[in-house]
Amino acid sequence: MLLRSLPAGFIAPCLPTPILRPPSGPLWVHEIKHDGYRMMAWREGDDVRLYTRRGYDWSERYPAVVAALRTLKVGSCLIDGELVVCDEAGVSSFERLRSRQHDHTAFLYAFDLLTLDGQNLRREPFETRKVTLASLLRKSPAGISLCEHLEADGEVVFRHACKMGLEGIVSKRRDSRYSSGATPNWVKSKNPNSAAVEREATEDWGKS
Q1: DSSP structural state of residue 177
Q2: What structural domains does the chain harbor?
């Protein structure tokens, strides 16, 4: 069987480890886990690509996101994020995203910055990368938005996420480097009553 070659510039995403209870303490920050497609957004000059976690190019599906990346004042970058479509309440809706009827309203929740203008930032602490990303996206257009993090107690953040019907949270160590594949420095706590948990229990999600 022939192995599919991955595109130039692609870096496999960091994958959070599932846990039952979120961590707390000053070493950790917490982000809402949005229900969408994991996406690595790559740009080199005017060339922009949106890669799934397995390296498939989905750039043509989401022109608004591609256009937004082209407006960033950089020569090159690689951004890690979650591509979503939101409902009227502003909550990410996987069914709307999967239907392909709302591709024009999809946008990227950006939560990490791996490279910037030829510099490899993966060795930098997460909090440094996040600050740099926030600065880059300060005046970004509608196709891309910063995924803010919370510094409150992990259990409290998780309970609120569950009450709002969200998928859960991802907790990240402030001092962690970016590493492809599973890592204990990023951990995810999922709402057991969310649609995402039910969907993952009944469908095969290893193809994208």
Answers
A1: P
A2: 14-202 (3.30.470.30)
